[in-house]
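Standup notes, structure subgroup. Blocker cleared on the zinc ion input:
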Amino acid sequence: MISRDRLTNCFIEMARIDSLSKKERDMADHLLKKLREMGFDPYEDDTGSKIGGNAGNVICRVPGIPEKPVLLLMAHMDTVAPGIGKKPVVDGDTIRSDGTTVLGGDDAAGIAVILETIRSLKEDGTPHGDLYLVFTVAEEGGLFGARNLDISRIPADYAFIMDDEGPIATAAVKAPFYNRFKVLFKGRAAHAGLEPEKGLNAIILASKALAGLPHMGRIDAESTCNIGIINGGIARNIVSETCTVEGEVRSIHEDRLERYTREILDHIRDVTEKLGGCVETEVERMYPGYCLEESSPIVCLLKEAARKAGLPLNLRATGGGSDTNVINGYGIPAVDISVGMDRIHSTEERIRISDMEKACCFLEAIITTALTYNR
Ligand SMILES: [Zn+2]
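Run returned:
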C-alpha cells in the first residue's frame, strides 16, 4: 500500500537537503543509503568528475521477474536556485517552501514517488519486471547527468521520467529538438572621442543584425527561437571591438530546427559583412526532440495504466527539454510524467501530498501493466 506518511517524510527529508546542480553530493549519499536500507545494491557513476560536479548519477537495479519488459524510472537530484537552506512547510495537504527558496519538489517529488512506489510493491509482494532507478545530476541547465549516462548498463525497454507538472496522469509525449548558438561580432576598436571614424562598433553591428532577424519568439506552432544573452564593449570611450550574442532555437521537427537556425545565422552574417564587420558562429545540438505516436506501445501502456488507476490521461506536447529527450535519443521510448509539482523554479513552489500519492498509484499501475507486455 502507498503510505501517505512515509511518502511525506521521504519528500521532506530530501527537500531539506541542499542539492544545487553539480553540488548533489549530500543528496546522492542520502539516496545511496536509503536504497541500501531497502535491500538494494545501488552504485554511483563517474559523471561528477566528467562535468565538474561533486556527485555522479545514482543507479540501482530492482530485480524482478525475468523476460518481462524492463523499465527505467528516473528523476533528477538537483534543484535550481535559490535552493540553499530550504525549509519545507506542511500546510494541510500542501507542502510549500517558507518563501525564501524554491521547495525543490522539482524534482524531489519525482524521487519520493519512485521510492514510495518501490517500497509499496516490495511490501505487498506485487510482481514486477526488472526496474532500473536512475537519479541524475545536473538536469537543470543542460541535462548533463542524462547525457553522460552509460546507457549500455541499463537494458530498458521503456522509460518513465517523473519530472513533469500538471494534473496527475499528465504525460509529455512530444518535446522539441534544441539548438543553442553563439555569435561573436567583430568590429574595430578606436578612441571614441579622438578618432571614432577609424572604428567599427560591434555593438551596432549586433543591433542591426538582430533588429531584422527572420525569426524570433514563436516561429510556428511547434517551433520557437530566443536571443537570451548579449555582451559587448569594455569601456564607454572605446568603439567596441566585439560583441557576443547567445540564443536558442527549438522545434519538434528536426528539419525545421536546422532550417530556422541556418536562416538566423545566415541573416546575421549577411548584415554584418555588408557593414564591413565579420562574425564567428557556433551551433550546438544540446539534445534531441521526441514525438511518440498515439499507437506506440509506450502510449498504449500509459492509456491502460491510467484506466487501471482511474485517472484521466492527459497526453501533451511540451516546449521544454528534460532528461526524457536524452533517453529517447538513446533509442529507449521515454515519457515525462507529472508528479504534481506546481509553480516550479519560483519561491512560491508547492506540491500537494495527495497528488504525489496519486502519482505513486499511477506509477504502480504502469509497472504492473508492463507485466502484461512482451519484451
Ligand atoms: Zn525538473
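Discussed briefly. The domain at 4-175+289-370 is CATH 3.40.630.10 (Aminopeptidase).
Next: hand off to the docking folks.
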